[in-house]
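Sequence in, structure out.
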Amino acid sequence: MNRLVCARLLVLVIFAFSSFALLTACPPAGAEGGNWPPVGQLAGGLPQAVAVQGNYAYVATVAVLTVIDISSASHPAQVGYCETPGYARCVAVAGSYAYVAGDTGGLRVIDVSNPARPVEVGHCDTPSYAEGVAVAGGYAYVADQGGVRVIDVSNPATPVEVGHCDTPGTPYGVAVAGSHAYVAGGYAGLRVIDVSNPASPVEVGYYDTPGQAQGVAMVGSYAYVADMWGGLRVIDVSNPASPVEVGHCDTPGNAEGVAVAGSHAYVADDTAGLRVIDVSNPAGPVEVGYCDTPGWAYGVAVAGGYAYVADGYRGLRVIDVSNPAGPVEVGYYDTPGDPWGVTVVGGYAYVADWGGGLVVVDVSDPASPVQIGYCDTPGLACGVAVAGGYAYVADERGGLRVIDVSNPASPAEVGHCDTPCPAWDVGVVGAYAYVADYNAGLRVIDVSNPASPVEVGYYDTPGYALSVAVAGGYVYVADADAGLRVVDVSNPATPVEVGHCDTPGRHAMGVALAGGYAYVADGLAGLRVIDVSDPANPVEVGNYTPCGALDVAVLGSYAYVADAYAGLLAIDVSNPASPVGVGYYDTPGTAYGVAAAGGYAYLAAWPWGLVVFAQPVPGTISGQVRVKGTTIDIAGATVETRIGDALKRSATTNAQGIYTIPDLLPGEYVVTASKQGYVSQTKADIVVASDQTTYINFNLDVSGRLTGQVRDKGTTTNVEGATVVARSGGQERARTTTGTNGIYVMESDLPTGTYVVAVSKPGWVTQTKMNISVVAGATSYVNFFAFERVPAMMGQVRAAGTTANLAGATVAVYLGGTLPAMVTATTDANGIYKIPAGLAAGIYTVVASAAGRVRQEKWHIAVADGQTTYINFNLQVSGKLKGQVTEKGTGLPIIGATITARAGGVVWATGTTVGPYGIYEIPSDLPAGTYTMLCTKAGYQDQGKIHIAVTAGATTYVNFSLQPQ
């Protein structure tokens, strides 16, 4: 793992990205205020590929297509850029259009007819990651991870896929010659696709290279493949169905890209720079020259005697290859590969470019920032401060680097001081530099002699020192999990902590000072505003929590927060106790550092580079409020502005109904006008522009009024604290609560119309009344005199197997098996029963019965306080047993005999014979089935009968004749 990656992982650990899911889930829309576009950008990123046409090089970086003027080979300069979604992997240029393949953006078509203003005009999504692109004959051929996609670009505004061919491996690059496309297929080597019919491309041959094919160039009948560790492979494709390797040349690095011009192949060889290989004899290619590049060479294009190398985090390198045996770099455009920190002094932005050192950018024209110089540093530049003609760079493992910037075009290191741990940030006041040195705390370095800086003191903070701000003899340290630490440096040799303030996010990453306050970027806890007027007793007074704050700068009444996943946030801190979001811009990558000066904010964003924003200028909303349908002005109306749910500013109308709300920062607002007796009116998506007045008028309807009383159905007592809601058209229009007398009043916001009015209260059954008319200027009375408590238990009793409701059924509730019933209820015409409120919480047995029906029991029914338990029953039709008991031999009736009916060993029913004829009847609770019957009487022998069938709704007759004992 390279050092750059290791260092970045260290930062992720510091920021506790165990909460990473929270960050990625945090949308930019969570930031308040309007969208706040930049006014200028110095495009950055890690150049992956380059194409050249005329006097311009088109460089594909992580999220931007950068257009660079190469008319002067020694001084290439950015002239324009265009954002691209995802990771731009490859670019091809044909005519007035650039075609960019991106890992999540598919194919993007960009109009470059005006190189200073490239603009996307069309796109075509691809199903997977697009890695390479070639354009020929009105078609773009995209190497997508699933294969090759053929896209018709004859109309650049509406590119359309017309065919595809799946290939094995992962296609990284593609070239087209004649009727064939040649695909660098990763581990699958070179794949040859017949594209004579673009709608039906088909693979016709392949050659399995020994490495991992990344790029391919076609000249004549030969394919030149950049094969990573396999170097350059030369493959004869004169017979496309049977490609054959004829030669190869190993390269010291990993061959990532290749271009061929004349008799030479030019290989972008990753860490080994540019390799020049003589291919005049394709069977015996041989390296004849090379030029090391400072970064990682990923892509190469050749034109007019120059090779243009996309060199990863070291930008575009221009190499004179007029003498192939002695290629030499003659110019470069060093894009900020990984901007981390930035400060602005005297018309220049000084960018700490992680992995790229110090980059100096002329921002005298904020709309067109121009890189004019850089100075490489041995470590990873994290933070930068500028004072007295010197830039002081916190260079991670490289400690503190002192760079002379008296000539911004030629910055040069003049001294350095090693620090014990990674140096993350630096502040300079007078003759001292104060370095936030990760877990070695605050280091104080004497820089009175810039050529020989020397540490004179330190204070080991309890956390991880990540950022510093210096003022009035104190250094304020953003100390990660230890919050904000205040260190007295009046004696630089013995700095001592005098106060601290814990921050809730435990990820204090950045700090800025203004007007007696420290502004701390606290990771997931956002911006924390801390009163440091008493350095010994810092106290948090306000906060604003967007998503993942990494750095902060303050200018005037605004704090600018570099938010890892929400981009740049502009926050109004004119009231430090109540910060308000006023604008945001969602950068495509990660916002790391921010500076503010001269009315502009400067954002260091990976992979975007340096992005410049104009400071928001407040605007005004004004207008008039009148009675709808008249010219009558409404005085004393309140007009409020909101962003989201947050109230911003408000005003009251004068005698002429006029209001004015000044000092509104640019953005989209929701504006509401209201006054008692009138229907409030709200207008959304009201745009306020910088230094302009937006006029919004209101016409308010006269409102109606609803009032009434709520009483308990059971006791007719008044019900206090019930909520009454009026709805119209499915929308809630008003709500209120009953007082001690059960009375409610709705006095405003009710336009003329028909309403649904509902009353509710926890523990009570919601009651609704429909078609309630409200008339402007009048009062409508709606009473609820049958408001009842939520029953303890309720349900429905039906005939089993049907939907017929059983009215008059009895439902009895027993506590366990205790008799008699605790409470009973009878079903209404709909078969519904209700057990009133007041049944104590507990476990009950519930029994439902009805004439001619088999009673049904349900056990272990739980009842909770203030809740309704729902229990339904389905009762079967019962059968009946009837008969006579007589004395055997005489035929005389026996009175008082007992008859028992059993099924499954359980006694279902009993009956007794009565006079004068000894008749018994078992009329209910007998479900259909087969029974065993037993007849007993003292003085007689028992008699039993088996297999007695009982039918639902019918009577089964069973007689007994008992033998005297």
